[in-house]
């Protein structure tokens, strides 16, 4: 809906994008910035940049672009929902489920399932990924939170960006990890030799930080609890490989998907175990945990059986 705002004396000197974010609390700052760049926002009838400083009595006009029609089909894919209210939904994603459509995956995704489950989700967060604030790789299982309204989308996007969401993962990695706990900080960027992969051995990239601690040593593998401080693409997989302990079953960053005795590892053994945050609308504390799936527990059982006596 089009709207006009008049800047007061006390707001003089503030950036346009930051000022508009306060007026439009239900809209994320990144979306506001995109509106400004797309000339959907004007100051005194003129297009400007997001960082322009406002002056008293400036007239701000906002004409949001129409929401793109979602062409994805709702699909009745079962969801393991742990929590749901009118604003958000928390689910336990199974391994093998792609989060949002991409090349080669225009159906059978989590978004298709969400469109079936939430009848009014189509305009939230964009055309191809309505409600998706963060993602898990196809073969990573575990907890995700989904926005059901624009207000929730804006709040969650802000909290993820400001690192107010605590996410712990359990990872089975190759070898005996020493020291048993630590913190990893590297740059992560596109691998210059393999464009579909990320790498920590880059000169330019984004800072990525992870903390890990050993839960259990299992002979040829170690079960780790990993806390990610940042949310870079493939962060845990890249960091573990960088340490020389790639995740079991991760053929992209590690070795063949087999244990030492030839047992097949069905997928990368990475599970989003716990999630803690404040509700983006009510402010209530939310905390969830998801049990390890059967395939993950089975690999742990086999490793325990074959672990040499200490």
Total discrete domains: 3
| Shape designation | elongated
CATH topology of the largest domain: Pseudouridine synthase
Overall average pLDDT: 90
User: What is the second-level CATH architecture of the largest domain?
Assistant: 2-Layer Sandwich
Strand content is: 25-35%
Largest sheet: 10 strands, mixed
Relevant CATH superfamily of the largest domain: Pseudouridine synthase
Query: Compute the gyration radius: what is it?
Result: 22 Å
Structural class determined from secondary elements? alpha+beta
Helicity level = 10-25%
Quaternary assembly = single chain
The beta-strand count equals: 13
* Order of H and E elements: EHHEEEEHEHEEEEEHEEH
CATH class assignment of the largest domain = Alpha Beta
Number of helices: 6
Which blocks of ≥5 consecutive residues have pLDDT under 50?
none
The termini sit apart by: 68 Å
Topology summary:
Elements (H helix, E strand, L loop, with lengths): L2 E4 L9 H8 L5 H9 L3 E3 L15 E4 L18 E4 L3 E6 L16 H8 L23 E7 L2 H12 L4 E9 L6 E10 L7 E2 L6 E12 L3 E8 L6 H8 L27 E9 L6 E5 L4 H13 L4
Parallel strand pairs: 6-12
Antiparallel strand pairs: 1-3, 2-3, 4-5, 5-6, 7-11, 7-12, 8-9, 8-10, 10-11, 12-13
